[in-house]
Amino acid sequence: MKTSQPEALDKGVSIINTGCCHDCGGRCVLKAHIKEGKIIRFESDTGESPQIRACLRGRAYRQRLYSPDRLKYPLRRVGQRGQGKFERLTWDEALDQIAENLKRIKTSYGNSAILFLPGAGNQGLLHGPIAPGMLLQQFGGFTRPWASPSYEGALFASMATYGTIRTGHSRDDLLNSRLIILWGWNPANTIWDPETSLTLAKAREKGARLVAVDPRFTDSVSTFADQWIPIRPGTDAAMLSAMAYVIISEGLEDQSFLEKYTQGFERYKDYLLGKEDGEPKTPQWAEPITKVPAKAIADLARAYALQKPAALIAGWGPARTAMGEQYSRSAAVLCALTGNIGLPGGYAAGFMRAYSSRETGHLQKKDPNRPIDKSQGIPSANPVENGARPRPNSLYKLSGGTNATSARIHQSQIWDAILRGRAGGYPADLKMVYIVASNCLNQYPNSNRGVQALRSLEFVVVHDQFMTPTARFADILLPVNTFMERSDIAPPWLGSPYYIYLNKAVDPLYETKSDLEICRGLAPRIGVSPDFFDQSDEAILRMFASQRKDIDDFEAMKTRGVLKIHLSEPIVAFKDQIADPQRYPFPTLSGKIEIDCDHLAEMNNPRIPSIPKYLGHSEHYDAPLAQKYPLQLLTTHSKTRTHSTLEKVDWLKELEGQGAWINPLDALSRSIKNGDRIDIFNDRGRIRTLAYLTERIMPGVINVCEGAWYSPDEEGVDLGGCANTLTHDQPSPGGAQPMNSALVQVERAPVQNSHVPSGT
Ligand SMILES: Nc1nc2c(c(=O)[nH]1)N[C@H]1C(S)=C(S)[C@@H](COP(=O)(O)OP(=O)(O)OC[C@H]3O[C@@H](n4cnc5c(=O)[nH]c(N)nc54)[C@H](O)[C@@H]3O)O[C@H]1N2
Ligand SMILES: Nc1nc2c(c(=O)[nH]1)N[C@H]1C(S)=C(S)[C@@H](COP(=O)(O)OP(=O)(O)OC[C@H]3O[C@@H](n4cnc5c(=O)[nH]c(N)nc54)[C@H](O)[C@@H]3O)O[C@H]1N2
Ligand code: SF4
Ligand SMILES: [Mo]
Fold it and tell me: How remote is the CA of residue 163 from the centroid of ligand 1, in Å?
């Protein structure tokens, strides 16, 4: 889609309006300047406000697109699986072999033996795992995971407390807040929709006070916050309980809000006052647990209750822990206690979806006979649930998006499920895996166990763009093109009102194809009707667009590369429920905000209590294991990558090197200097990386950004520094993934080198 050439452009240069759609907190406008069929430069949004501007990663995309490391041809494994030895074969040969194995496995073991692992690599509506999922579904189905590594704790809390994941306000509403609490939230790096940072800056200019609660002094803290409260990881529920204690003991709770809109306050109060366990949840009780001074806890509690409207934005990082849902629930309940829900400038902590054209109309009170609400989920291909009997479990009634059922396997347990199958209590014996747009070996917890699991299978297919650690384990590896080489539509990451239309900017390089084209080739080979797959990309995009009420002018969206939807007023979650609770009950069983949740009460499981509680676990700071492994590992999202994508972009590496953040106190007691090569280890594995000494991380905590490429040497030491070599694969009782709950020890690596990492 060519636009007219502005005068300033060099001769022979044209601009194609396209975008970036990795899973990176954004979805942004990129204008590709093309000369002789090649992209020579990117510009971003220069149009009307709000501008959807690309970040440093999108602007560096040429180095990924034109990287010499791109996969160029279909490949077949020749060495041992995982060794990375391949030979080139034709597309016909590759597709024949995949088809043969799919049919063989279906005949010998049934469809449930086929595991489909879709990843987050591409976030457009058309490309990535969508088409392969549909194809395998039509082939008779497959086994797939449930539980998102991103937000399962927040999803659990939202469904338990409010009965929906639509808990967010549009960003512009932050300008109405007097106090904004960034709890484990770092949008300066993780974006969380492109207008977030600018809006936080404007909110500050307008006079709002910003407080950050995070074990790290992040870029968001340094840019936006008036106060930084470092907290010991995994103890947030203790601090939130203590804040609730201060609020109720000083009579600062919003009594009329509690009476009108909530259920279960009295039970929660009993917990806070210690009537349940003899332990009042005072700030003095929380101080040694959280390492936050009691006064700071009490001050923040008073400010949050009194400086209304106040927005408590509870990020997903603290919920990516072994008891993550208790933190998310405690935050949601604190919002209700202070009546900060349903009013401009307030915020209902939770999943935080704001705008979505797929979710129009009012929320309905929940019908106990149809308890599983799948309508509000992230769109995904639905599998046929093969050969597994759904087991009754109230947790599944809270699914709301990732659709937990007993026919699916929790994502963090995939490796264990492959290794142990039905005998280990899983719903299927898995024989092959079909991996699309996922670097699962790198991104799921416990990568060393992942190696054993992938080695044990009969057949492994991977679609990717690079020779990732996962791709090395493929039997057949198919080269896929990037979003610059095909057209797509990208909805926003979490819920801002816009769409990006990605016009194809250049022809596919080498022999690469899209995942959809691959399905066009596979469908006839496995006896699946080609009808859907044989439509043109644009015909399918038009069909998808026609299903969304808010895309009223497809042509304009395509020409401009973006459709911005102007709202008459900011979105405020639960505005209707608060204004008219009779007409608009909350979509929970009781029709109210459930401080004490009925579904959870049904479960009667002390590890998933019906009111939020602070709970420990086997890799908590005070667990016996901490004697051996005294440091808490965080595995946050990197400024320079989208997960493991963009790992091979040198421009980005120049901005910030890979290295572990470690506090000088922890480093010096181990004779570690800045830039030293260090080993971080526990019983699951050992990684070697560089030490970056900084007071920007609290003592006792070490941070390794997720996404660095797993690369074990002959002795099993991961020289790539992949965080998941160290992480734990046991999900929390409520389904949260535990990647921020690993205990580790650190020592200088045997051979030192003098390189100093360029951390921030
Ligand atoms: N640049 C970049 N942006 C991204 C992504 C990316 O890979 N790169 N990924 C995108 C995706 S898919 C997702 S799901 C989101 C993830 O977004 P988040 O989950 O919000 O990101 P994280 O960096 O993991 O965590 C946010 C903050 O939580 C803090 N934290 C960790 N544990 C605790 C704790 O126990 N208590 C407290 N109080 N704080 C804690 C961390 O120090 C960090 O600063 O980011 C999106 N944005
Ligand atoms: N320790 C730890 N682990 C984590 C996290 C954490 O905080 N800590 N965060 C988790 C989170 S929130 C997420 S969302 C996951 C993300 O984990 P993944 O979904 O595995 O995401 P990526 O690592 O970005 O890998 C995506 C792959 O897709 C490929 N790709 C890109 N576009 C396409 C395409 O169009 N087609 C195909 N076939 N391939 C494509 C890329 O080259 C890349 O290899 O990681 C999780 N893992
Ligand atoms: S990496 Fe994400 S935030 Fe950055 S430009 Fe691309 S879509 Fe936008
Ligand atoms: Mo994520």
Answer: 24
